[in-house]
Amino acid sequence: MNQPPTTMTQSPNPLLDFTDLPRFDLIQPEHVKPAISQLLTDGRALIARLTGDAAPASWDNFAGPLALGLEPLGRAWGVVGHLHSVNDVPAWRAAYNEMLPEISRFYSELGQNLGLFDKYRALKAGPEHAALSGERKKIVANEIRDFRLAGAELPEEQKPRFQEIMEEVSQLAAKFAENLLDATNAFAEIVTDPARLAGLPDYAIAAAREAGAKAGVEGWKLTLHAPSYGPVMQYADDRDLRARLYRAHATRAAEFNDSASKAEWDNGPVIQRLLELRGEEAAMLGFANFAELSLQAKMADTPGQVLAFLRDMAAKARPFAEKDIAELKAFARDELCIADFQPWDAAYASEKLLQARYAFSEQEVKQYFTEPKVLAGLFAVIERLFSVRIAADTAPAWHEDVRFYRIETPAGELLGQFYLDLYARETKRGGAWMDEARARRRAGSGIQKPVAYLVCNFARPVGGKPATFTHDEVITLFHECGHGLHHLLTRGEELGVSGIHGVEWDAVELPSQFMENYCWEWSVLQEMTAHVDSGGALPRALYDKMRAAKNFQSGMMTLRQIEFSLFDMLLHGDFDPRGERGVLDLLADVRAEVAVLVPPAWHRFPHSFSHIFGGGYAAGYYSYKWAEVLSADAYAAFEEAGDPFDATTGRRFLDEILAVGGARPALASFRAFRGREPSVDALLRHSGMIAI
Question: Which of 72, 185, 217, 290 qualifies as a cystine partner to 278, CB 3.0-4.6 A?
Answer without folding.
Answer: 290
